[in-house]
């Protein structure tokens, strides 16, 4: 019996990957500099300090690493506060779980402040029992700590909780810890699509039909809960 839900944020709840894919281009554009083709792919796997050093070297910026990091963070903060959308159809899933009185918690590697701003603007912050961040817990999703803490917050065992994730490594971690895993499609993880498909308990190409999804998860449908 499913008693709790854990959602990842970026790429799972929020269609936020465009800011990470286009961050360098947006930052340079704010200074009137045209980015070279393929910059997004170069920066996508870099940390902000690495990205700052790359931009200084590649675009001959007369700025310190700290100034560039501040500028990149401003672009990120503005995007979450004013622009980032929910993934298409996810609101119907959130409302479906709420109607079933199943608690939901967010477990994210992202920044709490940015996420809180986005959730409040989108009108869904009140749907979640809590938000756990890897930064605050001093962990990452190669370890199950954040999922276990979220389950504990809902007073659930792992096998009673569905974890929605878009990243392959996170799905592996949650599944090994005993959680029910749902792999959510996001274009940013196309390279791992086959592995996600074959690893997750359920693969979700889109949030199209909550009732069909719930029936497949409970076998007998929502009356089981």
UniProtKB/TrEMBL annotation:
<dbReference type="InterPro" id="IPR041492">
    <property type="entry name" value="HAD_2"/>
</dbReference>
<dbReference type="InterPro" id="IPR036412">
    <property type="entry name" value="HAD-like_sf"/>
</dbReference>
<dbReference type="Pfam" id="PF13419">
    <property type="entry name" value="HAD_2"/>
</dbReference>
<dbReference type="InterPro" id="IPR023214">
    <property type="entry name" value="HAD_sf"/>
</dbReference>
<dbReference type="InterPro" id="IPR023198">
    <property type="entry name" value="PGP-like_dom2"/>
</dbReference>
<dbReference type="InterPro" id="IPR006439">
    <property type="entry name" value="HAD-SF_hydro_IA"/>
</dbReference>
<protein>
    <submittedName>
        <fullName>HAD family phosphatase</fullName>
    </submittedName>
</protein>
């Amino acid at each position: 019996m499913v008693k709790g839900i854990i959602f990842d944020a970026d790429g799972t709840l929020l269609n936020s990957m465009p800011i990470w894919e286009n961050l360098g281009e947006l930052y340079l554009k704010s200074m009137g500099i045209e980015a070279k083709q393929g910059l997004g792919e170069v920066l996508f796997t870099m940390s902000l300090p690495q990205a700052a050093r790359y931009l200084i070297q590649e675009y001959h910026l007369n700025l310190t690493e700290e100034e560039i990091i501040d500028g990149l963070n401003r672009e990120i903060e503005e995007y979450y506060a004013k622009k980032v959308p929910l993934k298409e159809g996810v609101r119907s899933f959130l409302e479906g779980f709420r109607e079933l009185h199943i608690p939901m918690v967010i477990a994210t590697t992202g920044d709490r402040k940015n996420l809180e701003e986005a959730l409040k603007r989108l009108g869904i912050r009140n749907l979640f029992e809590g938000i756990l961040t890897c930064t605050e817990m001093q962990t990452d999703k190669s370890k199950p700590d954040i999922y276990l803490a979220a389950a504990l917050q809902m007073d659930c065992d792992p096998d009673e909780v569905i974890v929605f994730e878009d990243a392959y490594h996170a799905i592996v971690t949650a599944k090994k810890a005993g959680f029910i895993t749902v792999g959510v499609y996001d274009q940013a993880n196309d390279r791992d699509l086959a592995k996600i498909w074959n690893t997750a308990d359920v693969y979700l190409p889109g949030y199209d039909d909550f009732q069909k999804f719930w029936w497949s998860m409970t076998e007998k449908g929502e009356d089981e809960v």
